[in-house]
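Observation: inputs received (chain + 3-hydroxypyruvic acid).
Thought: call the complex predictor directly.
Action: predict_structure
Action Input:
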Amino acid sequence: MRRKLVVGNWKMNGSLAANAALLSEVVAGLAGAKAASAVCVPAPYLAQCQAQLAGSALGWGAQDVSSHASGAYTGEVSVSMLQDFACSHVIIGHSERRAYHGETDAQVAAKTVVALAAGITPIVCIGETLAQREAGQTGAVVAEQLGAVLDAIGADDIAKIVLAYEPVWAIGTGKTATPQMAQDVHQVLREQLATKNAAAAGGVQILYGGSMKPDNAKELLAMPDIDGGLIGGAALKAGDFLAIIRAAD
Ligand code: 3PY
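Observation:
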C-alpha cells in the first residue's frame, strides 16, 4: 500500500508574513490527515519553514538544487545548503525550469543523483508539451525523460525517488488531464520503473501535477497509480491545499 503524498509547489510566491499565516493554518488543519504532505518553497524561506514546521506533520523542501557541490555558480543553491535547513524533499526538473532555464534530461539526472546522495527525496518531474501530446509522442517523451534518470541512479535508489507526472499543457493553464489520461501515463511510468527494479516499482509514489484543485483532486487520486499531487496555485490557499490533502485520505 502506497501512502498518498501531497506536495505544495509554491513557485516564486510568498512573503514572511503571508507564509507564516499560510503555514500555521495548514498545520492546524492537518490533524488526523492520513496523507503525507510537504511544501516546496523558495530557498530564502527554508529557514522560516524549519523554524515553524519542525515537529509538525508538514514537511518542507526546495524547488531546485545545484548539481555542483560548491564553488563559482552564482545564484545556485547546493544540496548541503538544503541539508542545513533539514529539507525532506526537493523538486527536480519542473517544466518551468526545463523551459525557462534550459534544463536538460542530463542535468535533471545529475541533480537527482546529488539529492539521493544527500538523503533528500527528489521529486522528479516529467511531462509532455501540448504539441508532443497532439503528435502522439507522450509515451516516448516521458520514457526518455525518466530513462535519463534511471540510467544515472542505482537499482536500489528506485525506492527513494518520487515521480511527478506534470503534463506541461496543464501547468498554470487551468487545464487538467482527465483521471484516465493521467492514470495511463502513471501506469506506463511504473512499468518503466519496474524494468530497473521490479520489487521497488510498486512502492514508488507517482504524483500528478498540473492544475490539481479541490474540485478535481478526488477523482484523480482515486486512480490506482496516482499516489498524490504536486500542487501549484491551490497550495497558496490553506483551505484549498487542505481540501486536496483530505481528498487523498
Ligand atoms: C501546477 O500545478 O501548476 C504545477 O506546476 C505544480 O508543480
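Thought: report the result.
Final Answer: Residues 179-196 form the longest helix (18 residues). Residues 9, 94, 166, 171-172, 209-211, 230-232 surround 3-hydroxypyruvic acid (CB under 6 Å).
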